[in-house]
Amino acid sequence: GLSQYSSDPRTEWDLSAYSTREQVLEAVRSLRYKGGNTFTGLALTHVLEQNLKPDAGARLEAEKLVILLTDGKSQDDANLAAQTLKNLGIEIFAIGVKNADEAELRQVASEPLELTVYNVLDFPLLSSLVGKLTRVLCTRIKERSHKENTDTPVNTGPQLSPTDLKISAVTSKSMHLAWSPPLRPPKKYRVVYYPSKGGTPKEVVLEGAVSSVQLSNLTSHTEYLVSVIPVYDTAVGDGLRGVTSTLPLSSPRSLRVSELSHNSLRLSWKAAQGATHYLVLCSAAPDGAED
């Protein structure tokens, strides 16, 4: 699958679009370059929310790899978005060209960095990476598949995976999450949530018998990404993901002016629910405006 990005990510084709090497190569040859800004964090979030979904062809049992190709420093928080992917077991390879920020590439990429970070001076030099990168990718897939088959496999069937995430009772600073538990209750759930436009991820750990949680102390009028991940003794189930926005704070209403004099006036209004203070700003009307 492939997505291009600038200020707005765009899916060029999904994982399920082509089934042969020749079809993929023809799609690459037909690709039109998308210029513009460098919002890498937004692009990584797009890949997680749109491209690594079963509907887009992502096989639940398959290893998930993301190869980031960038020629500039990100204009948003790429590290936060990358950490979310890595927390979900998705491995990131970072390839920089020309003006890419080496420190940012190393932040975004998965460990070990000597295998996942590459940087070249110009686009034609990318061809020099193909052989090594191919070998590294194939080796990593084999290593991870073997490790998970013998250690802590990700199992995403109905036995180990919750379903039907519902987000309700959304206010300016809280929301309620509920889901249907898997057939086999997990040992615990990890609930991870953070603002989609950047911010520190927060996490709540719940006992496996619980299937709902109230998230509090959120920021008003903010879009949040939430993930519910079941954890077992020897496996991790497929996580549920959702997006919702908290409500804006309530505003004062019905502003009235009274007790006018040559140098004073009185204001009154209906209170804003939950407000502890008010800031009142006053300035002279511009010339020509109504007094």
Automatic annotation (TrEMBL):
CDD domains: FN3. Keywords: Extracellular matrix, Secreted. The keyword Secreted applies. Residues 1-133 form the VWFA domain. The keyword Protein biosynthesis does not apply. It comes from the Eukaryota. It is found in: Secreted, Extracellular space, Extracellular matrix. Its main location: secreted. Coiled coil: none annotated. Residues 161-250 form the Fibronectin type-III domain. InterPro entries: ECM_Assembly_Org (IPR050525), FN3_dom (IPR003961), FN3_sf (IPR036116), Ig-like_fold (IPR013783), VWF_A (IPR002035), vWFA_dom_sf (IPR036465). This is COKA1 protein.
